[in-house]
Design a protein that fits this description.
single chain, alpha/beta, Aspartate Aminotransferase, domain 2, 3-stranded antiparallel β-sheet, globular
């Protein structure tokens, strides 16, 4: 079948050039006689890979020097526990519910403190975002949590909220798993950001945490040592064996991003891809997207056939056209096209062409 256009929400499409380089270096990395996955994480070879990856990531995301970059494990789901273990002080935390992932975060954090709902878009079916001015954040809040891009429901904060402008001194915690590196980050508004790598940064197994220095060193007594941000930071993410091969691949992705113009160029590319798909959906009589236009995700585009009896025919035809992983999440149904950084414009063009032809044949 050859290389397909893979619209999976994660693990997701990777840049082909990265896969080719990894294949070429699989048995012997730079004359070391070893594969990266065979290296000691404390050896000079891997340390050079790790240091370059952190340097490139800091440059790409313009991470300020007073933030620590941690390469961890467990994915975004584990961070729903690790964040409150480090930042809650056993007190109250506020959550803005915008979809499935922020709901999971709220539920998990409740095991380590008082987890409160500051705002919710559930009544609207998570098709829009609660305006920050309406958020009810408690005066004693340890942090305010948002998922800045909901992978399942397809809503995205196109601008991070300014909590200080709302009179809130609590740090903002951002789950940016599914759109990290797709656009710049305003770090002046962020206390901590985390995300699994398997959508925009690399393979599953690596979790990125970027945390302001003043927020670490306050872990709850029962926080596992390997999850204590200060211990991880003090040991340059080597307190336990890190996900070495995933870090290596992520480092290749960072180099690919730099080669293709960095985050600003990627943002413009993502806007163009998303606009192409949304323009088609908005003009279609067979397909629809139900998310409010001002908060539509540029990474994850859920859509539905107005006649759902045609779903299986649509998916079968898509597979035959080498367009894969378009079935929506089981909790919401329908379809979903995830168009991360590594998805070329040609992939979205091919999808729109197929959808247009399918609509004609089904008329």
């Amino acid at each position: 079948m050859g290389r397909a256009f893979n619209f999976s929400a994660g693990p997701a499409v990777m840049p082909e050039a990265v896969l080719q380089q990894a294949a070429a270096e699989m048995l012997d990395w730079h004359g070391s006689g070893m594969s990266v996955m065979e290296m000691s994480h404390r050896g000079k070879e891997f340390i050079s890979i790790y240091e370059q990856a952190e340097t490139d990531l800091r440059e790409l995301l313009a991470v300020p020097t007073h933030f620590k970059v941690l390469f961890m494990q467990g994915g975004g789901l584990a961070e729903n526990a690790i964040v409150p273990l480090n930042l809650s002080h056993g007190g109250a935390m506020d959550f803005v519910l915008t979809g499935s992932w922020s709901q999971k975060s709220l539920k998990e954090a409740g095991k380590y403190g008082t987890a409160r709902v500051a705002a919710s878009g559930q009544v609207e079916g998570f098709t829009t975002l609660p305006a920050p001015a309406t958020w009810q954040v408690g005066a004693n809040s340890r942090y305010v949590h948002i998922c800045s891009n909901e992978t399942i429901h397809g809503v995205e904060f196109h601008e991070l909220p300014d909590l200080k402008a709302l009179g809130c001194d609590a740090p903002l915690v951002v789950d940016f798993s599914s759109h990290v590196a797709s656009r710049p980050v305003d770090w002046s508004r962020v206390g901590l950001a985390f995300g699994g790598a398997q959508k925009n940064l690399g393979p599953a197994g690596l979790t990125l945490v970027i945390v302001r220095e003043d927020l670490i060193g306050h872990a709850l007594p029962h926080c596992p040592s390997a999850f204590d941000y200060k211990l991880v930071a003090d040991n340059q993410s080597m307190y336990n064996t890190p996900p070495t091969y995933s870090i290596y691949i992520a480092g290749l992705v960072f180099q690919w991003l730099k080669k293709h113009g960095g985050i600003t160029a990627m943002q413009q590319r993502n806007i163009a891809k998303a606009q192409l798909l949304y323009d088609f959906l908005d003009g279609s009589s067979l397909f629809e997207n139900r998310v409010a236009k001002d908060c539509r995700s540029r990474m994850n585009v859920p859509f539905f056939l107005r006649d759902e009896s045609r779903n299986e025919a649509f998916l079968a035809g898509a597979k035959a056209a080498n367009l894969l992983q378009l079935k929506g999440h089981k909790s919401v149904g329908g379809m979903r096209a995830s168009i991360y950084n590594a998805m070329p414009l040609e992939g979205v063009q091919a999808l729109v062409a197929y959808m247009r032809q399918f609509e004609k044949t089904q008329a």
